[in-house]
């Protein structure tokens, strides 16, 4: 691991102290004079036509300042993926799920707004509804969006190699089906927006809990018919995103609309129930995997059919189903793959990007089936993964360019750390170990113009100001960017300040998704810092009569490498620079986009997907209580190739958090929706893992040095969310001999499975 | 809603006069009236612990406490822990251990753990986990949070020698 002066060090987040003191401001912490508060009137039925909305009684309630319906705002749809735009800020003709926003109310306080919501009367013509994607694709099923007659709003069919031929050559072919449930992002900060309008110059400013300030800006402009240069999006501190804030929501549009209409600041904050019901969730997905293998466990072909339950709207649909497909091509070498995936509308809460974005579901299915196949053909499950691992530098069947890859090592290291050889299949009944592998890109390329920009200023006083478009949502993006800049300019972290994710003053950035921030925004900051460095060092080199390439800098000093005495302090350098009448501050700019041939081809043709790919293997040891069916995860090992960590402590934090996410997905979390009604939209009822459930965690760093990442860094934090769930369920199989195909694996399922197994063993029918 | 009365709340040693309806929660009084927004609103139903404050030495959920109940009590919020800008040892430990990511849950965790350490200066790992089970964090997996609390507990134990 590279440990430089600032990069590679375990440095606390630069804003951690402010957060520890309660001084860090999130959107709901912001107050503006005369601020109004908003609430939504939401659909009580899963599917229906809106016949009439009577707002008259709400409008006359004292304290109410405005009520709007979908008919009062422009008929414009929004969406994070341009191809998938299908959502109105407020429903116009139809409601498509319980909770669809029908009207918005603003009042002098929240209580009055809530009272007004109760006074709005909505008349519906109820329509038949559909709640399962497999039902929704049948002929005659209710149509959720009139322009999508089969409810399939996005699909992909992609074949590499020749799957049929490879199946014919396989020694064994197995087919198994799996299901992944709805999981909510459940950030502790509810989604919020505060908007303010300046009638003098027509500027609209919105503070929003968002991961994608620039996409939000564009969508606000196009839906509310405001010139884009009049919209300024500022991201305050964001209390967790996990993908759930890469979308935009009614609260953003309505806050802006009312602010402009009423000329007063307007704030909308979602209640917890709305976060569960009206934001996004990980798509429930049915996946069937057919795999052909040789006797030694080598994968010869895979055929996958996936139906994602999209809920009422698209959100990221075309992208999600594409990612789900393409990322089956890592971390194993699969020469022949056929993927058919469908994003299907239903009358339920909407699916969206969530940590892994379409891949956790696929990984669960594939990693589970690999274990089952290993058992069926008598090959060790860890060995089988090593045997199929992709290798760096090899031509890749889908055209990915894998410069560095520590996957095979990660399997071996994870197995070693969990005690695989001693434990697998050898522990007492009720206890077992399991393993699963994964890989993730460092941001997506080949898709659209996704670049990051940065500006770095070095002032006369030696203070460094960084502007970046990157959206820190708690993962530490701003800290990592500051570390990169500090390293390049040879200053300590305390000299660097950053202003980020303010579209009014920061350079363009794609936003926080696809795990691209460190590589993309980090490289942009590195280029900007190098620009500053070049300007100053050229000057210093002349003074020192040295070659600029021989100069090094650290601790506010610049000197000739190898000759510490031939140098000067940064302060002296800037002083001399000033007296030579050079312009100050020194300003550097940088912009970085992943190398790509044609940046709009992802959905249509092969090509490299990302500048780099991280690899990870996770191994779990579990104990199943045979009496209660409860599973305790005892230990979780992560062997992780994320290139060179810019900040190992933050990387650790990412992977520890993702293990918790994976445990929730495996064992506890399920946004239960019956006939379109969510049953557990609260922390008390939703299975959110607590400190009590956390296992011992161990991480093993697999050292690689990526040529494209800043200082060799690759993705961290999203890929590690993929393997924990299958590793845990694989460990349950090792512990009690039951193969589960559905998530989450609940105590009831375990007890039922054990009962059936016992019944079978006794030769009686115990089906219940 | 009922008629408003004026309450005197003692928060972090300062007296606040707050006009308050009988159903106003302590969380609303703190955030919306006293403008002490360090105490967070994560769910408003006692499910996440983000609004934890210390009332007469005991950790309570401000969203489940009526403001009127808090009158006459010594209320301590996250803003009241640092002295003259210097972080409390526990706040410092949260920073140094990387126990803070997005930071939205941090004030609640720090208040919960502060109350624990005031009562049990050297809690064991299991006791810390049990005590913090009502505080939810989506970012950290709790590992570094528990480590931070443990480090202060151990230090205290050392200090007693």
What is the CATH architecture assignment of the largest domain in chain B? Roll
Beta-strand level of the residues of chain B, as a percent range? 15-25%
Terminal residue distance of chain A = 55 Å
- List SSEs of chain B in N-to-C order: EEHEEEHHHH
* Radius of gyration of chain B, CA atoms, in whole angstroms: 16 Å
**Coarse structural class of chain B:** alpha+beta
Mean pLDDT of chain A equals: 96
Form type of chain B = globular
What would you call the shape of chain A? globular
Would you identify the CATH H-level superfamily of the largest domain in chain A?
Aldehyde oxidase/xanthine dehydrogenase, molybdopterin binding domain
Q: Which CATH C-level class of the largest domain in chain A is it?
A: Alpha Beta
Molecular structure report:
- The complex is a heterodimer of chains A (768) and B (161).
- Chain A has 768 residues and is of the alpha+beta class.
- Chain A folds into three domains: 16-23 and 451-592, Aldehyde Oxidoreductase, domain 4, CATH 3.30.365.10; 31-127 and 189-239 and 245-278, Aldehyde oxidase/xanthine dehydrogenase, a/b hammerhead (Aldehyde Oxidoreductase, domain 3, Alpha-Beta Complex), CATH 3.90.1170.50; 281-445 and 602-760, Aldehyde Oxidoreductase, domain 4.
- Chain A is built from 19 helices and 31 strands.
- In chain A, the strands form eight sheets. Chain A has a seven-stranded mixed β-sheet with strand order 3-5-1-13-10-11-12, sandwiched between helices. A five-stranded mixed β-sheet of chain A has the order 7-17-16-15-8, with helices on both faces.
- The N and C termini of chain A lie far apart (55 Å).
- Chain B has a five-stranded mixed β-sheet, with helices on both faces.
- Chain B has two domains: 5-80, Beta-grasp domain (Ubiquitin-like (UB roll), Roll); 89-160, [2Fe-2S]-binding domain (DNA polymerase, domain 1).
- Chain B is globular, with a radius of gyration of 16 Å.
- Chain B has 161 residues and is of the alpha+beta class.
- Helices cover 34% and strands 16% of the residues of chain B.
- Chain B is built from five helices and five strands; from the N terminus they run E-E-H-E-E-E-H-H-H-H.
- Chains A and B meet through helix 1 and helix 17 of A and helix 2, helix 3, helix 4 and helix 5 of B.
């Amino acid at each position: 691991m590279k440990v430089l002066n600032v990069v590679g060090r375990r440095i606390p987040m630069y804003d951690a102290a402010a957060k520890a003191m309660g001084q860090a401001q999130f959107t709901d912490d912001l107050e503006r004079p005369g601020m109004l508060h908003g609430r939504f009137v939401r659909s009580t039925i899963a599917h229906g036509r809106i016949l009439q909305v009577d707002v008259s009684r709400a409008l006359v309630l004292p304290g109410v300042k405005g009520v709007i319906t979908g008919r009062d705002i422009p008929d414009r749809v929004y969406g994070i993926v341009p191809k998938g735009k299908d959502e109105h800020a407020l429903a116009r003709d139809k409601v498509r799920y319980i909770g669809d926003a029908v009207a918005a109310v603003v009042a002098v306080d929240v209580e009055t707004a809530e009272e007004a919501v109760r006074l709005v009367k909505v008349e519906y013509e109820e329509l038949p509804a559909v709640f399962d994607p497999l039902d929704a694709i049948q002929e005659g099923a209710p149509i959720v969006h009139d322009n999508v007659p089969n409810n399939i709003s996005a699909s992909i069919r992609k074949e590499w190699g020749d799957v049929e031929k490879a199946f014919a050559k396989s020694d064994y072919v197995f087919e198994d089906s799996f299901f992944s449930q709805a999981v909510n992002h459940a950030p502790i900060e509810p989604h919020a927006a505060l908007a303010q309008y300046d009638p003098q110059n027509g500027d609209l400013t919105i503070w929003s809990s968002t991961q994608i300030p620039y996409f939000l800006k564009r969508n606000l402009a196009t839906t509310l018919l405001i010139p884009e240069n009049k919209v300024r999006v500022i991201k305050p501190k964001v209390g967790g995103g996990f993908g759930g804030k890469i979308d935009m929501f009614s609260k953003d549009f309505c806050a802006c609309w009312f602010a402009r209409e009423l000329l007063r600041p307007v704030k909308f904050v979602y209640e917890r129930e709305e976060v569960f019901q009206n934001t996004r969730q990980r798509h429930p997905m049915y996946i069937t995997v057919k795999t052909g293998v040789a006797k030694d466990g080598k994968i010869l072909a895979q055929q996958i059919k996936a139906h994602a339950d999209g809920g009422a709207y698209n959100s990221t649909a075309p992208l999600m189903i594409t990612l789900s497909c393409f990322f089956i091509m890592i971390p194993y070498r699969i020469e022949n793959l056929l993927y058919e995936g469908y994003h299907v509308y239903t009358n339920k809460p909407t699916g969206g990007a969530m940590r892994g974005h379409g891949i956790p579901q696929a990984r669960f299915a594939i990693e589970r089936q690999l274990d089952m196949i290993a058992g069926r053909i008598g090959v060790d499950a860890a060995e089988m993964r090593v045997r199929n691992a992709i290798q760096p530098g090899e031509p890749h069947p889908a055209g990915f360019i894998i410069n560095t890859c520590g996957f095979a090592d990660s399997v071996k290291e994870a197995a070693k750390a969990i005690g695989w050889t001693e434990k697998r299949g050898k522990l007492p009944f009720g206890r077992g170990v399991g393993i699963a592998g994964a890989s993730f890109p460092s941001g997506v390329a080949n898709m659209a113009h996704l670049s990051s920009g940065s500006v770095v200023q070095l002032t006369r006083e030696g203070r460094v100001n960084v502007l970046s478009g990157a959206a820190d949502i708690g993962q530490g993006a701003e800290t990592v960017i500051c570390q990169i800049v500090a390293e390049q300019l040879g200053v300590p972290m305390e000299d660097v300040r950053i202003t980020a994710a303010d579209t009014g003053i920061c350079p363009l950035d794609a936003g926080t998704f696809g795990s691209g921030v460190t590589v993309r925004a980090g490289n942009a900051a590195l280029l900007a810092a190098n620009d500053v460095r070049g300007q100053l060092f050229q000057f210093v080199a002349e003074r020192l009569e040295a070659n600029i390439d021989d100069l090094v800098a650290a601790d506010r000093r610049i000197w000739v490498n190898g000759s510490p005495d031939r140098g000067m302090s940064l302060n002296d350098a800037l002083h001399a620079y000033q007296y030579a009448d050079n312009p100050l501050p020194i300003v550097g700019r940088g912009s970085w986009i992943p190398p790509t041939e044609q940046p709009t081809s992802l959905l249509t043709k092969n090509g490299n997907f990302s500048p780099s790919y991280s690899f990870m293997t996770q191994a779990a040891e579990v104990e199943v209580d045979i009496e209660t069916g409860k599973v305790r995860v005892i230990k979780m090992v992560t062997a992780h190739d994320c290139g060179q960590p810019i900040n190992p402590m933050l990387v650790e934090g990412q992977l520890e958090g993702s293990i918790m996410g994976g445990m929730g997905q495996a064992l506890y979390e399920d946004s239960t929706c019956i006939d379109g009604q969510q049953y557990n939209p609260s922390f008390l009822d939703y299975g959110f893992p607590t400190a009590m459930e956390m296992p011992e965690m161990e991480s093993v760093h697999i050292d690689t040095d990526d040529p494209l990442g800043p200082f060799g860094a690759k993705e961290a934090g999203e890929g590690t969310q993929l393997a924990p769930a299958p590793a845990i369920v694989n460990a349950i199989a090792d512990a009690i001999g039951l193969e589960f195909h559905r998530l989450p694996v609940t105590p009831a399922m375990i007890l039922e499975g054990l009962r059936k197994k016992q019944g079978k063993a006794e030769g009686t029918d115990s089906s219940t | 809603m009922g008629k408003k009365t004026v309450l005197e709340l003692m928060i972090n040693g300062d007296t606040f006069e707050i006009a308050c309806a009988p159903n106003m929660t302590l969380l609303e009084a703190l955030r919306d009236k006293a403008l002490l927004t360090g105490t967070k609103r994560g769910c408003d139903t006692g499910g996440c612990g983000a609004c934890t404050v210390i009332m007469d030495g005991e950790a309570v959920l401000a969203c489940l406490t009526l403001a009127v109940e808090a009158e006459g009590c010594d209320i301590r919020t996250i803003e009241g822990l640092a002295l003259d800008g210097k972080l409390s040892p526990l706040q410092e430990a949260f920073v140094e251990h990387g126990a803070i990511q997005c930071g939205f849950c941090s004030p609640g965790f720090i208040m919960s753990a502060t109350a624990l350490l005031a009562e049990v200066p050297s809690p064991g790992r299991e006791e810390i986990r049990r005590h913090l089970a009502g505080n939810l964090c989506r970012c950290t997996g709790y590992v570094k949070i528990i480590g931070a609390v443990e480090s202060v507990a151990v230090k205290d134990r050392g200090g007693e020698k």
